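U., I forgot to send this yesterday:
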Amino acid sequence: MVVRLIIALALTVLTLVIVGKRAQTIYRLIMSGQPDHDRMNEVGQRRKRQLVEVLGQRKLLKWTVPGTAHLFTMWAFIILLTVYIEAYGALFVPDFAIPLIGHWSVLGFLQDTIAVLCLTSLVVFAIIRVRNAPEREHRASRFYGSHTGGAWLILFMIFNVLWTLFFFRAASSALGNRVFAWATRCASIGWA
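Result:
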């Protein structure tokens, strides 16, 4: 138990150092630009547009199938952040749950549902990439000239996020830490 905590804390410190350096680089890049004196004009309209364009993925939804797959993937990153908070907390307290929402069945249902939808989206993305591969369609491919290796790596890394979610939930359940009712997270409990 102590070794696990030491490793977890060491990795946390390492992660914070890497994130801190990256944040510093981004801050310097932002500060190198010219100030925008019109930034505070139409703030309400800008916020509304941000919600519609980013959280609603309006432009991407014009491409029905890939847009929907992208919407599920983006929301998976937002919703599944709660699972990784729980997993990190479980390093210190085995039955850790996020205060106020941690035992909420709706959260467990959302986590499992978005994870399954995201997994389905990864299959959709893989099929699209294979069907439209530049090696097959040459210049007619929508991916012509893009770095397809990087795209496959991203799909693989997202897959890793998903299988670790299911593994964490299954391991927690097998150890008797049932934070949510079985019916709300049947996809991850099925692995247990």
